[in-house]
Write a structure and sequence with these properties.
Layout lengths: L3 H33 L5 H12 L7 H17 L1
């Protein structure tokens, strides 16, 4: 007959094992998806390139300044 402590310990170990294995499996799925995902969106890059070459791509100076400031602040936090 298994004592109550041993039974409780065995249940806890099983739960711990399930808890630790599941995130590992999730990370494996994430890494496999990252491997097949391109670093850049070629279609978006090509469209932007065409717009720039045609002189139709314009960025407002306010939007650019805001983005630069946000990026600088994020770098300071690191």
């Amino acid at each position: 007959m298994i004592s109550m402590n041993k039974r409780k310990k065995k249940q806890t170990c099983t739960r711990d094992k399930d808890f630790l294995v599941a995130p590992g499996q999730d990370m494996e799925k994430i890494f496999s998806l990252l491997k097949i995902t391109p670093d850049m969106r070629a279609d978006r890059v090509a469209a932007l390139k065409r717009m720039i070459e045609a002189g139709k791509y314009h960025v407002s100076s306010e939007d650019l300044a805001e983005k630069m400031i946000k990026e600088s602040l994020l770098e300071l936090k690191k």
